[in-house]
Amino acid sequence: MRIVISLFLIAVTFLVYGQVLDYGFLNFDDNKYVTENAHITNGFTREDVVWAFTESYASNWHPLTWLSHMLDFEIYGLDPFGHHLTNLIIHIANTLLLFWVLMKMTGTVWRSVFVAVMFAVHPLNVESVAWIAERKNVLSVFFFFLTLWAYIDYVEKKRSFLFVVLFLAFGLMAKPMLVTVPFLLILLDFWPLRRWNFGGFAGESEMSAIKTESLGRLILEKLPLFILVAGSCVITFIAQKGGDAVRTTELRSFYSSVANGLISYVEYIEKFAWPRGLSVFYPHAGDSISGWKALTCGLILVVVTTWVVRSIQRAPYFAVGWFWYLGTLVPVIGIVQVGEQAMADRYTYLPMIGIFICIAWGFPELIKNAKQKLIPILAGTFIPILMLLTWAQVKHWENSVTLFEHAIDVNENETPSFVIAYNNLGHALLSEQRFEDAVTVFQRAVEINPNYSKAQNNLGNALSELKRYDKAIGYYQQAIKIEPDYAEAFNNFANALRNRGQLKESVEYYREAIRLDGEYDEAHFNLGITWSQQGQLEKAIAQYQKALEINSKFTKAHNNLAGLLAQKGDISGAILHYRQAIAIDPGFAKAHNNLGSALAGQGKFKESILSFEKALSIDPNYIDAQKNLELAHSLVK
Questions:
Q1: Which SS3 state, helix, strand or coil, does residue 345 take?
Q2: What is the DSSP string of 428-492?
Q3: 249 falls in which pLDDT band (50, 70, 90)?
Q4: b vs e for 146-156, b when ≥16 Cβ sit within 10 Å of the residue's Cβ?
């Protein structure tokens, strides 16, 4: 029976989420975490493994998450299929572990199945599964369930407490949201493990050979866990403060943080009960949050908490489920504000299990005197509806355009922080070369928040793609005025000047971009182009070499450097860099063509023919390659 149930859980989860395997990377954190993260795209190297454990990046320290992304790259490269598959496999594993852990603790099969199914297919969990960058979420919860499993074995005297400490450490190294786990274990000690007596209530555990302990003894045994948690909190605060992810009271008042937290607690439950209008981004209203709404939500929380505490002896599962929900949300409820969002669906991946437990154990008890046959009928109706809603929600994650168009459609509260949704949509439209649409979206972003430098910069980029350089320069200047150390805006400003023929003026701004960011490979590359256009080949070569020193996989820098080396008569050096460009990007048609020309320059016409043919196989309309191929054939004859 249990094997059949496990297979059922695998099937329903894959049925709902299988479509995600056809989706791509997003422009929202997937680039930072995977596609543009050189530490990941280098695969497993000693240096990058050391980096994962010793450095914070993207405002986070989670080395096991980085290692999992490195492993994906080793196996799948930058094929998003494999990265999505890993997320889905971990989510399925989490579903199975949840079922087995609950069944092991409570001894009840069907209630455990209900909680596992709800976890598997509820729409709130789509964000955690369909978003590659949220690997940290599914992975940390995987280790959370292993921590629970090890803890149950410890309670049954089957395993050392060391395994509990080890798995929690792994979970914290995947995502620090697990800092509340020691407190959660104390809750589980009350019910269903019933290891401690609260208010005269202990009862018999559903597990065999469980001895009641004092609360002090139970807290003391978890001291190693509290030490782990304290260390994780310190590391996380340092990482996020250093990455400017933490918003201080200068940007968020204490009132707005507390009010937003109270409202979020209630709205998450509302989204659980009626999962409509789910979005990748919910804008923070700041000090404009309604005081009455916050007060009402606070009163609701107090009333529910009072009720579950008063019912604790009769129905301990309500208290455990409710405090599971409240407690595990504390790290992300916004008292210490991280990011610009008011709330996020991904934050409920672990906490909502508490609400599922309340329903699975509470609902049958509430109607125990009514017709029990209603329960399977209701579950059989409700769960398929959830599956359909989740399947539809997953569709929104197909690509960045569909994701942020949906976010804009469902959000009515376009506060200044909502500029992020418009900015990301515009960026996605740029990548699809829908430049006029991108201009419209970025203009709306600037209207919502004129002080958001990235939107000003990106509007300049969209206008530059349309060759409206005069207008673009105005937006680059505005971006720099808002953020004087914005290296990318200086680089883009210089590009616009160069495209207007102002080569000497552009050099000044490229140098400023490099001064602000010494590791800015693209600025070095663009300065190299500018020096080359001015005929200063040695300076250009130096800039290309610097770009490659920063980023050895910069294919265009290899190609351009090779071209200048060929001009200087260093054909062997040119061939070396053309081959390196091709090794990095086998689909780089221009490098294949240029390699063919370099080989022909050495009289190696048969080899050059192969390069020209390869260029044409990639781009059949490549006229230069066609001409070069005809010339090479005539010379061979």
A1: helix
A2: HHHHTT-HHHHHHHHHHHHHH-TT-HHHHHHHHHHHHHTT-HHHHHHHHHHHHHH-TT-HHHHHH
A3: very low
A4: bbbbbbbbbbe
Tokens of 635: 């010379």
Residue 288 DSSP symbol: G
Strand partners, 341: 283
Q: What is the b/e burial string over 75-87, where b = at least 16 CB atoms within 10 angstroms of the residue's CB?
A: eeeeebebbbbbb
CB-side exposure of 166: number of CA atoms within 13 Å?
A: 9
Spatial distance between the Cα atoms of 562 and 368, rounded to a whole number of angstroms: 79
CA–CA separation, 293 vs 303, rounded Å? Answer: 15
pTM for this one? 0.92
Q: Which residues 6+ apart lie within 8 Å of 303 measured at CB? A: none
- Is residue 619 within 8 A of residue 625, CB to CB? The reply is yes
Question: Can you give the pLDDT at residue 363?
Answer: 83
Tallying the residues shown for the chain, one arrives at 637
Separation of alpha carbons 152 and 210, rounded Å: 10
Residues 6+ apart with CB under 8 A from 56: 235, 238, 239, 242, 243
pLDDT tens for 259-306 read: 999 999 999 999 999 999 999 999 988 888 999 999 999 999 999 999
- Main-chain phi, psi angles of 105, to 5 degrees: -75, -40
C-alpha dist (Å) from residue 115 to 199, 221, 353, 550, 633: 28, 29, 7, 50, 70
